[in-house]
């Protein structure tokens, strides 16, 4: 299948797929000047998109790729653990910020502006 159909099946835009390829994250076979995508390529594109939806950057995903259309899953688990720690930290910071905003809002309301 060609890039248009690959985009439809994977949920990624043609532009995103070209970006993945230009970064060396995705290696697609060619027939002349056309990219020819296999079912495995589509699944790998979906994995890339899923990683992005979890907050992973393309550069991070490239570092996790083991050169083939697959990832070093041990490194993936380690990176996801770090991301999870970062998210917990962000949640704590937002909870503190939320509490402070509430305190200021209540203080201002008590002043009868």
TrEMBL record:
SMART domains: HTH_MERR. It holds the Pfam family MerR_1. Keywords: DNA-binding, Repressor, Transcription, Transcription regulation. Residues 1-67 form the HTH merR-type domain. InterPro entries: DNA-bd_dom_put_sf, MerR-type_HTH_dom, MerR_fam. It comes from the Bacteria. This is MerR family transcriptional regulator.
């Amino acid at each position: 299948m060609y890039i248009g159909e690959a985009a439809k099946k994977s949920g990624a835009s043609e532009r995103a797929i070209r970006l993945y390829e230009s970064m060396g994250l995705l290696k697609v076979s060619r027939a002349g000047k056309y990219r020819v995508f296999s079912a495995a390529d589509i699944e790998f594109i979906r994995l890339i998109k899923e990683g992005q939806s979890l907050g992973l950057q393309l550069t991070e995903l490239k570092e996790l790729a083991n050169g083939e259309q697959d990832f070093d899953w041990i490194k993936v688990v380690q990176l996801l653990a770090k991301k999870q720690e970062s998210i917990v930290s962000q949640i704590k910071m937002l909870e503190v910020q939320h509490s402070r905003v509430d305190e200021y809002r209540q203080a201002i309301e008590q002043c009868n502006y």
